[in-house]
Structure formats: C-alpha cells, structure tokens
Amino acid sequence: MTRSRLVVLLSFCLIGLTPRAAKADVTVFLGTTTTPTNRAVKGFAGGIGLVIVGFEFEYASTSEDPDSLAPSLKTTSGNVYAQTIGLPFQLYLTTGTGFYRERLGEAHETSFLFNNGGGVKIRLAGPLKARVDYRIFNLRGNPRHSTVQRLYAGFNLSF
After folding, report:
1. What angle do CA 58, 60, 64 make, to 5 degrees?
2. Is residue 105, in this structure, part of any structural domain at all?
3. What angle do CA 58, 152, 107 make, to 5 degrees?
4. Under a CB-based contact definition with an 8 Å cutoff, are residues 48 and 26 in contact?
5. How many CB atoms lie within 10 A of CB 3?
6. Which pLDDT tens digit goes with each residue over 53-83?
7. How crowded is residue 157: how many other Cβ atoms within 10 Å of its Cβ?
8. How many domains are there within the chain?
C-alpha cells in the first residue's frame, strides 16, 4: 500500500472514530387518545440524541369525557429510543416507563405506566421537523382501561 493511500485510509478511520456532538430537541404536540373514546391530548417532550440512540422526557394531558365515562389522563414518562440517520426523515421506535394520573369525576387513580411506540420526524426547514407518533400505554394499578392508545402530530425543533 502506498503512503498516500495509507494516509487517506487512516484519515477516514479517524473521522469515523471522532465522537459526534449530542443533539437536543423539543416537541409540542396535539392528538387523540383513542381509548375508550377519542379525546384531545396535548403535551410536550424534550430529549437528547446520541446519533442512533436517544433519551426523552414526555408529558401529556388527555381531556375527560364524562358522557362516555372516559377519564382524563395525565402521563409523565422517561423513554429511550432508536432512530434511523442519514435520511430526510427519521423513523424511530421508543419504549419507556413513568407515572400516570387518571380522573373521572371524584374517582382517581395514580400509578406506574409502561409505553411502547414509534413514529417519524420529517424535516421541514432547517432544525424544524414535523413529528407523528403512535404509542400504546400499559397502565398499572386499577385504571378504568389498562391499555390506552394515543396518536399525535406536532412540531419538533432541534438544537
């Protein structure tokens, strides 16, 4: 191997081994919780990504519908995700755990939750992305509905 080829090869190896800076992002979203009926959900998330793997904190609040006996639901969770890189969009899968508070009239329940889901972040302009997310929540304790589904869309800003 010639000396110039060796220098080029070593240069590419060093570039590949150089750590990339972590990127943070925030998301605000609106959507629907579909269990037991469709109700509005709103929330926010903030996270840090380390290339493919990342960590996120999320808070969401679903409104109550007393006519359908559908409780309000507030969730707070910490999640880990894996995402694609190098495309104009990012597909991701996520899982996490946290707490929930369910309330219907005077009745309420507070306990742990687990969630799994996935979604896509689509680049719009610069650091701004659209985000679509689907989650399944498994509520522990004695909730009215132990499995809750949520679909939302929002705006994501990276920095």
Report:
1. 165
2. yes
3. 65
4. no
5. 7
6. 999 999 999 999 999 999 999 999 999 999 9
7. 13
8. 1
| Domain residue limits at 31 | 21-158
| Residue 79 token pair | 């999640």
Residue 41 to residue 135: CA distance in whole angstroms: 12
Cα separation of 83 and 55, whole Å? 11
Q: How do residues 77-136 score in pLDDT, each as one tens digit?
A: 999 999 998 888 999 999 999 999 999 999 999 999 999 999 999 999 999 999 999 999
pTM of the model: 0.84
CATH number at residue 56: 2.40.160.20
Residue 7 lies in a domain: no
Asked if residue 8 belongs to a domain, the reply is no
Structure tokens given for 68 = 């359908």
- Cis before 36? omega within 30: yes
Residue 51 lies in a domain: yes
